[in-house]
């Protein structure tokens, strides 16, 4: 039986993730800045149920997002414009892990705002290209810290492996490959957080990139 306080979608996602009704109420009324894997997975489930994430749970759906959100701004042109801009910023976001995908959009929007990055700057990261400008490097830093690849001072091997393993699964061979990649970067540290992010990107992914 569905709780009187929860929608059918909230009830479904609560059971799927394995949390309590009290957890759901706390998530709903707290700022959307998840601190646990369970909270990320709950919101990933909710986003998929509302159409913001596609049926496979791997891509942001611009059409689904607009269908879910625009009706709430029917009489507010300024809000409608903001919603359309947000949809444009998130278009193209994809991730194998639905729990992380829901928060890529939130992290990206926050980092763009904090670092003064444009959609073109964000597209550099989406397309796995190296950052060139100072703004792009600082945007990468913000995203890397959100993903725990970096603490703003040094590369964090444990954070990198934990993040990526949630995507590829706990495969022993993949773990060895990822660990070897991370070992090459453990020496990276800097007082310049933005340059550090560029160095991390080059160390982790530059060797696999064709010039």
UniProtKB/TrEMBL annotation:
The keyword Secreted applies. InterPro entries: PBP/GOBP, PBP_GOBP_sf. Gene3D superfamilies: Pheromone/general odorant binding protein domain (1.10.238.20). SMART domains: PhBP. Keywords: Secreted, Signal. It is found in: Secreted. Coiled coil: none annotated. Pfam families: PBP_GOBP. One of its GO terms (cellular component) is extracellular region. The keyword Protease does not apply. Belongs to the PBP/GOBP family. This is Uncharacterized protein.
């Amino acid at each position: 039986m569905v709780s009187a306080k929860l929608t059918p979608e909230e009830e479904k996602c609560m059971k799927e993730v394995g949390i309590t009704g009290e957890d759901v109420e706390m998530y709903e009324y707290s700022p959307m800045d998840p601190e646990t894997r369970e909270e990320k997975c709950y919101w990933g489930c909710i986003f998929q149920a509302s159409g913001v994430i596609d049926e496979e749970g791997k891509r942001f759906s611009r059409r689904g997002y607009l269908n879910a959100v625009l009706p709430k701004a029917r009489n507010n042109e300024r809000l409608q414009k903001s919603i359309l801009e947000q949809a444009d910023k998130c278009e193209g976001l994809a991730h194998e892990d639905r729990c992380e995908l829901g928060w890529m959009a939130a992290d990206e929007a926050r980092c763009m705002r904090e670092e003064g990055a444009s959609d073109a700057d964000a597209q550099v990261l989406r397309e796995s290209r190296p950052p060139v400008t100072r703004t792009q490097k600082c945007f990468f830093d913000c995203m890397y810290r959100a993903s725990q690849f970096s603490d703003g001072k040094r590369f964090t091997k444990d954070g990198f492996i934990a993040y990526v393993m949630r995507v590829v699964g706990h495969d022993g061979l993949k773990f060895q490959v990822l660990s070897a990649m991370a070992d090459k970067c453990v020496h990276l540290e800097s007082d310049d957080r933005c340059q550090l992010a560029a160095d991390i990107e080059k160390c982790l992914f530059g060797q696999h990139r064709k010039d």
